[in-house]
Amino acid sequence: MIPYKITTTVIAAIIFLIIFVLVRRGKLQEKFALTWFSIGIIVVTLGLFPVIIDKIAWLTGISYPPALLFVIAVGVLLIQNLYLFIFASQNEVRIKELLQQVAVLNKLVEELRNPDNPKAGTD
Amino acid sequence: MRILVLVPVYNEWPHLLPVLKGLRQYFSNILVVDDGSDDKSFLSHLKDGGFEYLSFPFNLGHWSAIQAGFRYGLVKGFDGVITCDGDGQHLPEEAHKIAPYLEQGYDVVIGRDNERGDLTKKVCWTVLNALSGLKIRDFTSGLRGYGRSAMEALIRDPFLTLHYQDLGVLFMAQKQGLKMTEVPVRMHERVGEKSKVFPTLPSVLRYLFITLTFILVRRL
Q1: B54 lies in a domain?
Q2: Residue B196 domain-assigned (yes or no)
Q3: Which domain holds residue B14?
Q4: Domains contained in chain B, number
Q5: How many CB atoms are located within 10 Å of the residue A102 CB?
Q6: Which of A25, A66, B8, B106 would you label with A36, given CA atoms 20 to 30 Å apart?
Q7: Cβ-Cβ contacts under 8 Å for B136 (sequence gap 6 or more)
């Protein structure tokens, strides 16, 4: 049986590597990479030294250390999810406004192209 | 006063051309807004008929189509806009009754049909009326007039999240201090097609939830 520290380190390293590759390929924008690299570094640190969780749990009076880990993980994911929802709503509004303007501009271009068309000018 | 008639359309081609021909007898400026319909071939029919149109590459929602029309009207210097459904529900001669009210200086004019709606809808309306504090009776009516100042106000941010031309629009318009009035009109029974706002029960519930949230978060 291998020591559990190796297992945690390997899992953490894989997660960090995935984030790294995604940023490199441009799938994750650099501005989001900051958050994800921080998360990656935390994961690797905890993977190398799982005893940190036990220490914090002891300090905060949590008798079952893995529970602390889950609380932190759920909290972080919840905040990120909320952020994504805000981001999506914002984008929808922007797309709407842009498409409305594109539709109007298309029409105006059409009118400029056919100036002799009596219907093109609206008067 | 120069008025532009907006006809937002989403997959309702069969009834569109007769509606447009009727409108043409009363109005000289008509603009069809295609809200990302699946079949774009009718656009060439519009062109042949001498009708002008805007077109979205995909569906953005009824209200968004109207906003695009506002933008066009503003660029072209129109003083007001009348919105009219393309399914034949709104009669051209009734749409014509909206114009004088815009000339009198009202920012938003709503064409109200007293006979419209079954019991479920009436219950919905009463509840929403009470919650919104609006004195408007028929707030899902698509037959409306908007003055230039309303057009300018209604294309800005809080109005971009809306989906239908309904209570949310009126509620925000009232909050911004726009002058509103209702005009009694006659309407046709809808031909074949289902209502845009109320097609099925789940969508009614979804609509109610969205509208209630929209209003309540702004009133509290």
Answers
A1: yes
A2: no
A3: 3-117+136-191
A4: 1
A5: 15
A6: A66
A7: B110, B112, B129, B170, B180, B182
Using a CB-CB cut-off of 8 Å, the residues of chain A touching B71 are: 100-101, 104
Q: What is the pLDDT along chain A (123 residues), one digit of tens a residue?
A: 888 888 888 888 898 889 889 888 888 887 777 888 888 888 888 888 888 888 999 999 988 988 888 998 899 899 999 999 999 999 999 999 999 999 999 999 989 988 766 554 444
- CATH number at B97 reads 3.90.550.10
Cβ contact, residue pair B64, A100, below 8 Å: yes
CA–CA min distance B134, chain A (Å)? 26
Query: Domain for residue B123, yes or no?
Result: no
ipTM: 0.84
Using a CB-CB cut-off of 8 Å, the residues of chain B touching A89 are: 161
Scanning A25-121, the segments in alpha helix (DSSP H) are 30-48, 51-59, 65-113
